[in-house]
Design brief:
Length: 504
């Protein structure tokens, strides 16, 4: 199409807009005028984009062109389709090829950095921002409503999978958080969440976790239909010492409303003044992996090393008490030569208090007045560092009281749990040092990063599909989206067309 023909089409569209505003628009409500103008602007954008592509010509040059391995002669002109945010565009470009060559070359595609599929990177960016939060169906419905274009669901899944693949590589290469904003101590947390998988993902009996064991079942679900995603999170913080009395007040919800409101107001004042709130998470980073605990913790350790270039800040770990999480965490830090920085592994205080509630309910009934006082007393004792005394008291209750067998079983379960995690329950030391002792951050991550997206009604996932979506979601939640998508586009360019030529 010649320049004059392009200008004729563009001028015709502009004239349509001007005429519409002067005539038909006068009889429409303003939102209808807005919609019509938007549709016309899409037509205009498409016309200008078509011209921008054709202004480059076909890419044909005299002589041969190298594909990186061999020199290829000109073969023919071939057409291609590019689906932009404005609509679908057909263009023509020279093709260099010869019999038995490893691959042909379209020089124009390389020059314009055309994607492997027909879907533009800008369009993919737009769609994947939706995929990170919504179902594929919701994204496609919204896109069609806004732009009037149908995209197959399978194509959108392919776009999302392609865009999510470079996440791990991006994390390795991204810049560390601004050190001037970082806290004095690093906190790491981890937890697991089951994801419903498609039937083809069902593991065979005896498989390891990385290939699908240790599934959590939902009510009424069959074995093997959920695969575990390991959520990890890290942040830095400035310590805020607290007393056991303050903590038990918060755990038992004893604190007066006016005191809670005063604390919130203090935090708001500090934030508005641009100051860091003691104890608050700083520069949070989260991710989720279906590749198993080992891979998830290796990625977490890398983020820690990247976060603290001096490799000197103490590390505090919080987990829910699962033995496998603790052992894999310690193993990963050890392999990275960072185990000496681990100051402590803390059992989530909420899990501790939940076990006391179980014991209290068994002893005094669900509505017994003594139950509340007993839980408060034992909880405060543990927070003061007396977990051994609480264990001893529970044992004495079993020996000296004529308890029902069911109550004895509950108390023995609590005793066993506390004994197994006693090394992680030095809460008096943690509070004195100003460390966090609850895993609300990672539990919130399991909800917001994994559950809220993957547990939508009817969702069933393949491993590669859900991992890519979780990666996109993490990039968005971590505030990395723009940097990550730029990285993704560059990685695709290198894959398709090779490294950029260095300027001489």
């Amino acid at each position: 199409m010649s320049d004059s023909l392009f200008q004729v089409e563009q001028n015709a569209i502009l004239q349509d807009m001007k005429q519409f505003v002067k005539s038909d628009a006068l009889n429409l409500e303003i939102h209808k005028v807005e919609e019509s103008l938007f549709r016309t602007l899409l037509r205009l954008g498409k016309a200008f984009l078509q011209e921008a592509i054709e202004n480059h010509g076909s890419g044909k040059v005299d002589g041969k062109i190298s594909n990186g391995e061999e020199d290829l002669p000109y073969h023919s002109i071939k057409s291609n389709t590019y689906l932009s945010i404005f609509g679908e565009i057909k263009y023509y470009r020279a093709y260099y090829w010869t019999t038995d060559c490893t691959r042909g070359v379209h020089p124009l595609d390389a020059k314009l950095n055309m994607p492997e599929s027909k879907y533009s990177y800008y369009l993919g960016n737009f769609l994947n921002r939706g995929v990170a939060d919504q179902t594929y169906e919701e994204v496609l419905e919204n896109y069609k409503e806004l732009f009037g274009v149908d995209i197959p669901k399978k194509s959108l899944e392919v776009i999302a999978i392609s865009a999510g693949k470079e996440f791990d590589k991006y994390v390795i290469n991204k810049e560390a958080p601004d050190q001037s904003t970082e806290g004095k101590i690093i906190c790491i947390q981890a937890d697991c969440k089951g994801i419903r998988m498609v039937a083809s993902e069902k593991p065979d009996a005896g498989k390891t976790e990385a290939t699908g064991a240790n599934f959590k079942k939902g009510k009424g679900e069959k074995d093997g239909l959920r695969k575990m995603a390991v959520a990890t999170g890290d942040y830095s913080f400035n310590p805020q010492p607290r007393t056991p009395e303050e903590l038990i007040e918060a755990l038992m919800k004893d604190k007066p409303d006016k005191d809670r409101e005063k604390e919130k107001e203090t935090k708001r004042t500090l934030k508005e003044a641009g100051k860091i709130v003691p104890g608050e998470p700083i520069n949070t980073q989260v991710s989720a992996s279906l590749a198993g605990k080992k891979v998830a913790f290796e990625e977490l350790v890398h983020r820690i090393l990247q976060r603290d270039p001096t490799k000197s800040k103490p590390i505090v770990a919080l987990i829910d008490g699962e033995k496998a999480l603790e052992s894999e965490l310690i193993s990963s830090l050890n392999e990275a030569g960072q185990i000496d920085r681990l100051d402590c592994v803390i059992l989530d205080v909420i899990h501790m208090i939940e076990y006391l509630w179980k014991a209290g309910t068994s002893l005094y009934g669900e509505k017994g007045k003594a139950r509340l006082l007993w839980v408060r007393t034992q909880g405060l004792s543990i927070l003061k560092g007396n977990v051994g005394r609480v264990i001893g008291a529970l044992r004495q209750m079993i020996v000296k009281n004529d308890l029902k067998k069911s109550t004895q079983n509950v108390l023995n379960t609590v005793i066993t749990y506390f004994m197994n995690h006693k090394h992680m329950m030095k809460y008096n030391e943690y509070l004195e040092k100003g460390y966090p002792i609850a895993t609300g951050f990672i539990e919130g991550t399991c909800g917001s990063l994994i559950r809220d997206r993957t547990d939508k009604s009817g969702s069933r996932w393949s491993s590669v599909g859900v991992q890519s979506v979780l990666n996109l979601r993490a990039a968005k939640k971590n505030g990395w989206w723009n940097g990550y998508y730029k990285f993704h586009i560059e990685e695709q360019r290198v894959k398709l067309y090779g490294p950029r030529e260095k300027a001489s």
